[in-house]
Amino acid sequence: MKAIVIGAGSDLGVHIDGAKLGSAQLLNDLQSFYKGETASFQQPEDVIKSRNLSDRRKNEYDIEKYNTELYKNMVAKIKEECFPILIGGDHSVSIASALASAKVNIDVGIIWIDAHTDYNTFETTVTGNIHGLPLAAINGYKNHELRYYHDGKIIQPSKTVIVGARSIDAAEKDNVKYSGVTVFTTQDIKEKGIEAVMEEAFKIASYKTKGVHVSYDLDVIDPDVAPGVSIPEFDGITEDEAMQITESIVAHMKDIVSFDLVEFNPLRDQERKTEQIAINILSEILAAAEEKKKWESKQLYY
Asked: Are 59 and 92 in contact (CB under 8 A)?
């Protein structure tokens, strides 16, 4: 299984501009040390993006069209036994990524590392930003309009773990409460420690599944440390904690079937701080993916 890095340059899921530029910038940075296969899916230039705060279905049609193409291409690559590393883009691109993994691998769990639970529906969203709806769509909790292209299994809420949440809309709380997902807040991380939280997360997401999809949103990190995101939330984790999460992902790499890193917005970064953290995370994941490839080769040989 070889790694493929896929750039998903779309910020249609949020009224703030800039996340669509993040994937291209990080792909360019990776050229200095990654010589493997890459692909890029850029948001069409002719799309007229809605930023209207009263619009509760911002860019729904264009997101569906974009994600359909991304999904089909990711399914094809996974069937070729590639290990997909998706670089966003806002978090709406992860609907295509996670469901592509679920389509091919069939039974997967998911760990959603994010300051937000992303469990809104079109009825509960306050902003209309669709990057606040993806996990509900992935879990099959309403939002069917965002996954028309997917004809496989959804990822079960019971195999879903959110890590680092600290901003949940009032109406969204009921969606989360009754869905069956497991949530570890930023406060849980502070009290229990990264290692304990991530061990429990992998235990839940990998139980009776064929692998785990990990989706890592950079806004889980405190914006004083990583300001380059579209929707910052204060009281987040530190850079050291962010890298400890990465180390935990690396330690469980044999269980992981796909990975996202999303929401880097270079227009909001300061002194390239967020960019550097993103590259540090990606370099660790890519190195682990290479080790995973070697391990799987040995397993086949023996």
From this structure: no
Report the number of secondary-structure helices (H) and strands (E) in the chain: 9, 8
Structure tokens at 224: 């004083």
Measured distance CA(261)–CA(263) in Å, rounded: 7
pLDDT in tens, 201-242: 999 999 999 999 999 999 999 999 999 999 999 999 999 999
β-pair partners for 79: none
Sheet bearing 160-165, strands edge to edge: 37-42, 2-9, 82-88, 256-262, 212-217, 109-113, 160-165, 182-185
What is the C-alpha to C-alpha distance for residues 51 and 11, in angstroms, rounded to an integer?
A: 11
Query: What's the per-residue H, E or C state across 193-258?
Result: CHHHHHHHHHHHHHCCCCCEEEEEEHHHECCCCCCCCCCCCCCCECHHHHHHHHHHHHHCHHHEEE
* pLDDT, tens digit, 9 for 90 and up, residues 141-196: 999 999 999 999 999 999 999 999 999 999 999 999 999 999 999 999 999 999 99
How many residues are there in the chain?
A: 302
DSSP H or E segment with residue 113: strand 109-113
